[in-house]
Amino acid sequence: MGSRSSHAALIPDADSLRRETGFSQASLLRLYHRFRALDTNKKGYLSRMDLQQIGALAVNPLGDRIIDSFFPDGSLQVDFPDFVRVLAHFRPADDEDAGLRDPREPEPLNSRMNKLRFAFQLYDLDRDGKISRHEMLQVLRLMVGVQVTEEQLESIAERTVQEADEDGDGAVSFLEFAKSLEKMDIEQKMSIRILK
Amino acid sequence: MRSDHWLDSCPCWFWLSRTPKALPQTLRVLQAVCILLCRDGRALAHLASPWRQWATLRMERGAKEKNHQLYKPYTNGIIAKDPTSLEEEIKEIRRSGSSKALDNTPEFELSDIFYFCRKGMETIMDDEVTKRFSAEELESWNLLSRTNYNFQYISLRLTVLWGLGVLIRYCFLLPLRIALAFTGISLLVVGTTMVGYLPNGRFKEFLSKHVHLMCYRICVRALTAIITYHDRKNRPRNGGICVANHTSPIDVIILASDGYYAMVGQVHGGLMGVIQRAMVRACPHVWFERSEVKDRHLVAKRLTEHVQDKSKLPILIFPEGTCINNTSVMMFKKGSFEIGATVYPVAIKYDPQFGDAFWNSSKYGMVTYLLRMMTSWAIVCSVWYLPPMTRETDEDAVQFANRVKAAIARQGGLVDLLWDGGLKREKVKDAFKEEQQRLYSKMIVGNHEDRSRS
After folding, report:
1. Which of residues 89-108 of B touch A (CB under 8 A)?
2. How would residue B119 be classed by pLDDT, with cut points 50, 70 and 90?
3. How are beta strands A130-131 and A172-173 bridged, if at all?
4. Global pTM?
5. Mind telling me which InterPro entries this protein's record contains (chain B) (predicted)?
6. Do the beta carbons of residue B209 and residue B261 sit within 8 Å?
7. What is the tens place of the pLDDT at every residue in A139-184?
8. What are the angstrom distances between the C-alpha of B111 and each of A169, B131, B187, B443?
C-alpha cells in the first residue's frame, strides 16, 4: 500500500545519524527527500554531476569548490550519511549551554571550530593545513573571474597572507586563520535554518 | 459552437443505447450517472470535498498516535532565507568581524568566502529549479495514494474509503474514459482523412475545423477535464501565435477544444504519427522531421510563412520547451518571439486537488501518464486568454519573451523564474556566474578600475 511512505524507518542508521549530526528527525526526513530528489537516476548515492545540475550552484563562483567538499580524498560518490555530515556543519548552534556538553564526546559538527575548518578547507586545496599565497590567489581568481587584473589580484593575495600570517612562514595555518576571524559571528553567518 | 453539442454527446448515447436490454435497470442508471459525471465532473468535485478533509485529519491524528513523523509539504522551500543582496551580506559579514571602522575602501577579507559558501550550501539544500520538476505537493489528501507520502495503514475506515475510491476510479470511470478516448481518436483519424479528400476551399476548412473541435471535445470528456475559460474575447486570431505555459501534453487538448489552432511539433512514430499524418490532410499543421528541428532558421522560416498567410489558423506553441510542474513559469525560448507576429498569451493553471496533470517525463512514459490521468478523479483547470502583445521597437526578442512570460505568470499565479527549463539536461550559461563575479570584484577592487578604464 504505502509505496511512497517515508517515515524515518527508511533512512539508514537514522538514530546514530541524529546523534552524530544533531539534526532533528523532521530535518533529517527533509534532507532525505532532498537527497532523493537530487539523485536523478535513483542510484542511492550522489555523483558530482548530480550536484552540478543545480543551476543556482553552477553560477556560484565557488560552486566547484563547494562540490569538492562533498567528495574528499578523490571519492566519486557520496551517500546519504556523508551528505548529511557535510550539511551538519551548517546547522545553527544549539541554544543549550556549552558547559552541559560532555567533554569526552567529540565536538559537534556545527561547533565554531568545525565551521571554521570547513571554510578553511575551501581555501586549502591540497589539504596540507596551510593556505599558501598561490592557493589564496586561486580562490580570489574564482571569485572575481576576469574582472580584475593579475597584478591587482596578486597584491591583494600578498597583503591578505601577510596580515594573517603570524609566524612568518608565508602561509596561513588554520590557527592563524581562526585567530584573524575570532571576532566574527561565525555561528550566524555560516548557519542555515531548516524550517519546521 | 453550440451547434455541435448534439454531435459530441452522440457517442455517449451510442454506448448507452447499445446496452442489451437483459441488463438490470440499476446498471443502466449507474452508467447514466457515470456518463453524467464524466460530462460534468463538478458534481463529483463537490461530493468529494468533505471526505478529503476528514481523511487528512484522520491521517494526522493516526500519525501522532503512532509517533511517526508526518511529511508535511512545503511549497515555499525548506530553509529560511534572507533576501539580501551580495553587497549587503558581505558588508554585514565584514562589519561583524573587524573592529576597525569601515570606511568603504574596497578590499578583500578572509571572511568574504562565508557568503559564497553559505549561498552554495543553501542551493544544495533547496533550490528553485529542481523542485519544479516533481509533482506539486498537496497540503490535504485527495484520496489518491499516489499523491501522498504518508500513505500507510492508519485505520480501517480510511482504508475502506480509499478502497471505495479505487473501485470507483478503476472499475467505473476508467473503462468509460477509455471508451470515450478510443472513440475520440478514431473519429479524429477517420474524420480528418475523409475531409482530406475534399477539394480545397471554404467548405473543407469549415468541416475540418468542426471535426477537429468535436474530437478534442470528446477527448476532454475522456479525461473529465473541468475547464473554466476566462476572457474568451481575447482568443487568438488567424496570423497570430498563441503561447502558453506547459505542464502536460493535455494542454494541447484543453486549448484546442475551445478554438481552432494549427499545431506545431515533431513528427513521431506509432499512433501519434498516424494521427499527425491524418490531421495534416485536413488542414495545414506544421510538423517537422527530427532532423529539421535542430535547424533554427528552417523552423523560423516555416513558422513565418505560416503566420503570414492570413487564411491559416493561429499557431499553438509552448516556448518553455519542456513540462514544468505548474508552480512556476521558466524561461521562454526566444525563437517564436523573433517571428514578428502578434502574440496571444494564454495562462493555464491546474488545480491539483482532483488529479495532478504534471507529466514527469523522466519518471513516467506517455502511456503510464495517460492511464494515471484517466484514473484520477478529474482534471480541473483554468485558462485565461490574455490581451494580445506585439514586440515594441526598442525591445529585442528576449525582452519581449520575458514580458510575455511575466504577464502569464502574473495571471496564473505562478512564480516567474529566469531559469531555463532545459537546465535539467544542459549546463547553465556562464553569463549568470560572470554577473556575480562582477558584483564581487567591484567590492574588492572598486572604483580603481572604473577610473583606470575611463
Report:
1. 93, 96-99, 107-108
2. confident
3. antiparallel
4. 0.67
5. LPCAT1-like (IPR045252), Plipid/glycerol_acylTrfase (IPR002123)
6. no
7. 888 888 887 888 888 888 888 888 888 888 888 888 888 888 888 8
8. 21, 31, 69, 13
Gap between the Cα atoms of B384 and A27, Å rounded = 39
ipTM value = 0.86
Do A61 and B436 count as a contact with CB atoms less than 8 A apart? Answer: yes
d(C-alpha A62, C-alpha B433), whole Å: 10
Task: Give Cα separations from A107 to A11, A19, B117, B226, B235 (angstroms).
Answer: 24, 12, 22, 58, 65
What is the enclosing helix (H) or strand (E) of A172? strand A172-173
Interchain CB distance below 8 Å, A147 and B441:
yes
CA distances in angstroms from B425 to A36, A53, B359, listed in the order given: 18, 8, 16
Report chain B residues whose CB lies below 8 A from the CB of A148. 441, 444-445, 449
Q: Considering only CB atoms, which chain B residues are within 8 Å of A53?
A: 130, 423-424
The confidence score (pLDDT) of residue B99 equals: 53
| Contact in structure between A130 and A173 (CB atoms under 8 Å) | yes
A contacts of B125 (beta carbons < 8 Å): 31, 34, 87, 192, 194
Task: Indicate yes or no: CB of A177 within 8 angstroms of CB of B434.
Answer: no
Query: What residue type is B371 in one-letter code?
Result: L
Distances (CA, A) of B362 to A44, B133, B322, B366, B368: 17, 9, 11, 10, 12
- Nearest C-alpha of chain A: how many angstroms from B111? 7
Beta carbons of B113 and A90 less than 8 Å apart: no
A129: left (phi over 0), alpha (psi -120 to 50) or beta: left
Which residues does A110 contact at the CB level (< 8 Å), separation at least 6? A22, A88, A89, A90, A91, A92, A93, A94, A191
Closest-CA residue of chain A to B435: A59
Strand partners, B382: B228, B349
Specify whether the CB–CB gap between B11 and B35 falls below 8 A.
no
